[in-house]
Amino acid sequence: MDSNKVDRWSNTQAALKDFMINFSCNKCNYTARDPIRYQKCDHLFCTTCIGSKSQCPACNTPANRNEVYSDKITEKLIGYGNIISQIVHKTQSPMKVDNKTLSSNLSATEHNVSIKSQTIPKNVNKPNMKGETPLHKACLKRNIERVRSLLEAGADPNTQDNAKWTPLFEAVSYGYYEICKLLLEAGAHPDTPVEQNRTALHAAVNCNDIEMIKLLLQYRADVNACDSSGKTPLAAVTHVVVEANDQYDTPVNYVVLLAILHGDWILVSELLRHCANLTDLTTIELEFFEVQGTTNARRSGAPTRARENTQKKNPRLFNGCNFFFAINNQSTYTFGDLQFTKLTLSKLITEGEGKVLHREPDPESIRTNEEIPFHVARDVSHPLHSCSHYIIYVPGMDEPQIQYNMPHIKSLPLIWLIESIEQFKLLDPAEIGIIPSANDV
Predict the structure, then answer these.
(1) How far apart are CA 341 and CA 339, in angstroms?
(2) What is the DSSP code string of 70-118?
(3) What is the CATH number of domain 322-432?
(4) Residues 349, 322 contacting (CB under 8 angstroms)
(5) pLDDT (0 to 100) of residue 239
(6) For the chain, is the Cβ count within 10 Å smaller at the N or the C terminus?
(7) Residue 378: exposed, middle, or buried by beta-carbon count in 10 A (0-12, 13-18, 19+)?
């Protein structure tokens, strides 16, 4: 054997080793299997080495699920490196490895891998320890042909892993449009809620993926689906989309009340149809689609005032206000088409930066002008200018015998609270026909 040729193979082996080090997992230090990367830091890992971590194990950089991607280029380079390594190690005598030979080996190996990847397990929906089915894994790896083969073999497109993620939600989060289309065509439900009750449309909007949004809407994704925070898909970017009449007055629901208190954009659903012709949401003049009021407070301009208040970094509506609910903890109260409990009413107060009291306040212990609500502070003639404490009751139900009408504390019915939110102002009780009675203190 020619020693010079043996040395050349030794050099090749050393160079190949140096080449493959570049593809080592940053956790286990072996060549990465099913390699994935974090977008923000570019560290490389085996898929099994990071699991569902929300930060890079190497540098602790925080990352969302959609900021971790399957590195297909690295996967191919690792495959080619392994092929070359096999050729080198199988060579027992000097031989010439030309481009044609190498190309033939590469092609044959890729063909064998392709056949292997299409092998369908007997239990096509069997989950692993993380609850992932073969379809979940194929979607994560962006293996379109395997996804197609699994679906044709009867894989259920609506299975959920231990985090309740469906294959569709996985694919939407990573922006895999073609896979999403395959799943939807196979019967994937676009509105299946995952963790925190988010849907695929929530994920698509969060990624600002216009094409994905169009695809999901084509398959009737629900624009009014609420997550566990009560937000619809566009609320993920401080936008709430609602149905409205021709004058852009929207029916009142709990989400609308929260949106007003938050100062979110409240937009008519016509916006989504308009988006279908755009590629950049930032070009939309949102004011044109902004809701002008509610069906109970028609064209009041409250949504705009609330939004502008938030943009100015002003306190929210109930800043400086303390509330006690003189109502039963277990009862449900109806206001128009709305139903409330003490818990949901308390949530509205805290979201409006007010304080919920657990004991009825004693008028004698409240110091006059101790705290002036922000949203009436400039109007000294307003009847609520010095009112820092409110007792809310429901007329005819658990109505308190003593009702206060002092400058610093007032007893007011539930209708006053709801209409104050709808109009985004602390209403003068007289505006809605509330006149102090002879029994008021």
Answers:
(1) 7
(2) E-HHHHHHHHHHHHHHHHHHH--S-----HHHHHHHHHHHHHHHHHHHT
(3) 3.40.50.10190
(4) no
(5) 63
(6) N
(7) exposed
Pair of tokens at residue 225: 């689906």
The 10s digit of each residue's pLDDT in 102-115 is 444 444 444 444 44
Q: Which helix (H) or strand (E) holds 306?
A: helix 302-311
Q: What DSSP designation does 405 have?
A: B
Q: Which fold has domain 238-311?
A: Rossmann fold (3.40.50)
d(C-alpha 398, C-alpha 392), whole Å:
11
Q: How far is CA 331 from CA 320, 327, 415, in A?
A: 28, 8, 17
Q: Does domain 134-218 have CATH number 1.25.40.20?
A: yes
What residue type is 205 in one-letter code? V
Locate 93 and state its tokens. 């005598």
Return all residues near 331 (Cβ < 8 A) that are at least 6 apart.
341, 342, 397, 398
Q: What does the block give as tokens for 67?
A: 């900021």
d(C-alpha 344, C-alpha 362), whole Å: 25
pLDDT reading at 429 higher than 70:
yes
Give the confidence band of 322 by pLDDT, cuts at 50, 70, 90.
very high
CA distance 393 to 45: 59
Which tokens in the block code for residue 317? 């509506």
What percent of the chain stands above pLDDT 70?
Answer: 78
Tens digits of residue pLDDT in 219-270: 888 877 888 777 777 555 456 677 777 678 888 888 889 889 989 888 887 7
**Is residue 317 classed as helix, strand or coil in its secondary structure?**
coil
Q: Where are the domains of the chain?
A: 18-87+96-117, 134-218, 238-311, 322-432
The architecture (CATH level 2) of 18-87+96-117 comes to: 2-Layer Sandwich (3.30)
Say if 18-87+96-117 and 238-311 have the same CATH topology. no
For tokens 């949901």, the residue is 344
Inter-residue contact 351 to 258 (CB < 8 Å): yes
Average pLDDT of the residues in 378-392: 94
Residue 205 · residue 214 · CB < 8 Å: no
